[in-house]
Amino acid sequence: MRLLHTADWHLGKVLKGVDRTPEIGEALKTLLEMVAKEGVDLVVVSGDLFDRPQVSAEAEAMAVEFFLRLRELGVPALVIAGNHDPKERLEALAPLFALAGAAVRGRPLFREEGGVVEVGGLRAALLPFVSERILVKKVLQEAEERHRTYAEAMRRILANLESPLMLGHFALEGVRPGAGEFVFHLTGSYAVPPSTLPLGARYVALGHIHRQQQVSEAPVAWYAGSLIQLDFGEGEEAERGALLVEVPERGPVRVHPIRERWGKPLKTLRLKPEELDGRLSELERFPGYLRVVVEGRLSPAVKERLFQGLPHLLAVETTGGPEDGGNGTLAPELGLVEAYERYLKERGREEEGLLERFNQVLKEVELEALAPGA
Ligand SMILES: [Mn+2]
């Protein structure tokens, strides 16, 4: 059996105002061509199909299109939700996806609840991302066990689900991050030791880490990596793409990395202010999106000129720190109101009324976010 293992599409991703969905859609089209050309029997999607709980209709349409095309090709799919996905929504749409031949799981189930499915004679476990609070509640039901960790709960549910093929969306200890992931879900209590992976699995198809890599040899476990470079923090050279996995009747599985450069490259350039003019034409020619980090200070006028001259420049940051006159990156400790106040000052628009109104809107939004049912 030949599998195509993919993960971390992040349809609906908007990077500093630029919608990356069309680039991801192009990558998905190429994947479909590969499925047809390589005689793939099963497509495995290990979470983070979508970037946020609410994505554009275009992003949803691309996911739907993908599974309908797979159905036309006669290829089934297994899909789990990642931490970015609208998991309840995926769960609600699961019966519809099932009609297209895709088994979709939004929440974790034990084997006896349907956590293991059979496809083409292969048993496969589907373990979507789950928050520590919910997992510990589900798995460790005895009150005295509640102090146990996410890793322990994961070990138990993985043992329960042990199958030849296993899908998961979590961080293994010792993994090399791609830097675009939500850090909180990578480290500390959220990291699972590789020894929790059941030895009875022949292949563990992981998602969550955007850098493609093998993380275990027994059982064989890989992160497929994201389709495109999603964030400036992810290295331009970092491995990503998809994996073609051959699972023979018996004997070891063989994994063929498909390392494609889908989507536009993102580049960060660190420059001194005096270097800017000399490098403008080089920056203009860059085929992807740029972030420029300028050492020291930069006047708002120069910054404005850069943005106007370089349409694919998405961010200009300075390393001057907060006392550099306020035109740098926002220091993380700066609150939204202070940041806005500083921005108004920068623009010569120190109007009390504007700041007051901003403060008011912010409070309304916060209240709404806290309201039940939000
Ligand atoms: Mn992801």
TrEMBL record:
GO terms for biological process: DNA recombination; DNA replication. It comes from the Bacteria. Keywords: DNA recombination, DNA replication, Endonuclease, Exonuclease, Hydrolase, Nuclease. Pfam families: Metallophos. Belongs to the SbcD family. SbcCD cleaves DNA hairpin structures. These structures can inhibit DNA replication and are intermediates in certain DNA recombination reactions. The complex acts as a 3'->5' double strand exonuclease that can open hairpins. It also has a 5' single-strand endonuclease activity. Heterodimer of SbcC and SbcD. This is Nuclease SbcCD subunit D. It comes from Thermus tengchongensis.
